[in-house]
Amino acid sequence: MKNACLSVTCVAFVLLGTVSAQAATAAPTRPVYTKQLNTPEVSSDTRKLQAILDKDDADLRTADPKPVSPPQTILVMPSAAAAPPTPVQLPREATATEKPAPVATPAQTPAAVPVPREVHDVAPANDPAEMIAAEANGWYQWTKDPTAVFTAAIAFFTFMLALAGGYHVYVAGATARRQLRAYVFITQTEINGASAATQPVSQLVIRNTGQTPAHDVMVYGNMIFDEFPLKRDLPELVFSDPQLTKENLGPGSERYKWEYALVPLNEDQIAKMLAGTHALYVYGEIRYRDVFRKKRFTKYLYYTGGNMGIRGSILGGYPEGNEAI
After folding, report:
1. How confident is the model at residue 168 (pLDDT cuts 50, 70, 90)?
2. Integer Cα distance of 182 and 215 in angstroms
3. Is the CB of residue 190 less than 8 Å from the CB of residue 304?
4. Residue range 70-91, pLDDT digits in tens
5. Could you tell me the maximum CA-CA distance found in the chain, to the nearest angstrom?
6. Distance in angstroms (rounded) separating the CA atoms of residues 55 and 58
7. Would the pLDDT of 32 be above 50?
8. Lesser CB count within 10 Å: N end or C end of the chain?
9. pLDDT tens digits for 132-167?
10. For the chain, percent helix, then strand, then coil, each to nearest 5?
11. 307, 228 in Cβ contact below 8 A?
């Protein structure tokens, strides 16, 4: 009975499907319409859709925010082979009822005392631009330029040549002055009456042996009897004597100078002169000015007796006291 019912039901379903298919085939088909994307109708639909989306976004923005779930800590079970990982704390926002965790303040350390440092004319090491500028403007920068080095070498040698030229000019001028200046010296000496009990008289010949005149020539001298060798300074010459005269001596000109003893010699003085313990000294100084307006002088000191005895009218030069400039 059940099988008969199942068979009838299956036949009914098959017949119903066949009728439905025929009806669908016999029914007229509806035309399909397509729309161009750039038509005004499509643009209007697009604007409507954008308005609906904007409204939905506004509603979402104005809606109450969903409560934030409390932070969770994810724990990873360690394996036997690996080291236990560090728990990762997920960031979360603090709730209204939760107080923020206290922030640990670092331990206060004493303020560092600034150490004074030397100030140099170089840029700090932490500013490459200033270091480059300082190096570009440094005094040693010119040494890297061959042209600058060559120019400096030429300048140096030019300076040395100028110094050498100046020195040669000075030497030439000094040589010319030495050659052309006046030289006034004693050229001849003579003494009379030194071997007798009379008043000795010396005669000196003064001559300008230079090539230019000697101006304002003054000669001051004296004669004294003293022990030999001299053990004290000779009496000072006073050029303020009103009897002194000034004259000019041209090149090769001569003049005479006479000196007299203050008192005549006696027999005892002559015996001492012959014995070599005493001597008769003739000394003096010549002052003049050369053509270059430079003051000059000539000092002289002669004697008779002493270590050479009395040799007629000859006067010998004493080892000291004869100088000239």
Report:
1. confident
2. 9
3. no
4. 555 555 455 544 455 555 555 5
5. 210
6. 5
7. no
8. N
9. 666 555 556 666 778 888 888 899 989 999 999 898
10. 35, 20, 45
11. yes
Token couple for 146: 């061959």
Task: Write out the H or E segment, with its range, that includes residue 65.
Answer: none
- Do the bridges between strand 214-227 and strand 247-249 make them parallel or antiparallel, or are there none, so unpaired? antiparallel
The model's pLDDT over 232-285, given as tens digits with 9 standing for 90+, comes to 999 988 888 777 889 999 999 999 999 988 888 999 999 999 999 999 999 999
Which uninterrupted H or E stretch holds 235? none
Instruction: Look up the pTM and report it.
Output: 0.52
Residue 252 — left, alpha, or beta (φ > 0 → left; ψ -120 to 50 → alpha)?
left
* E strand map for the chain: 73-74, 88-89, 184-192, 201-208, 214-227, 247-249, 254-260, 278-289, 295-305, 316-317, 323-324
| Burial (Cβ within 10 Å: 0-12, 13-18, ≥19) of residue 204 | buried
Dihedral-angle region of residue 305 (phi above 0 means left; psi in -120 to 50 means alpha; beta otherwise): left
CA separation for the pair 301, 223 (Å, rounded) = 10
Task: Report phi then psi at 205, rounded to 5.
Answer: -105, 120
Helices and strands in the chain: count of H runs, count of E runs: 5, 11
pLDDT tens for 257-266 read 999 888 889 9
Write the burial class of residue 89 (CB in 10 Å: 0-12 exposed, 13-18 middle, 19+ buried): exposed
Contact 282, 191 (CB under 8 A): yes
Q: How far apart are CA 209 and CA 232, in angstroms?
A: 33
Percent of the chain with pLDDT strictly greater than 90: 37
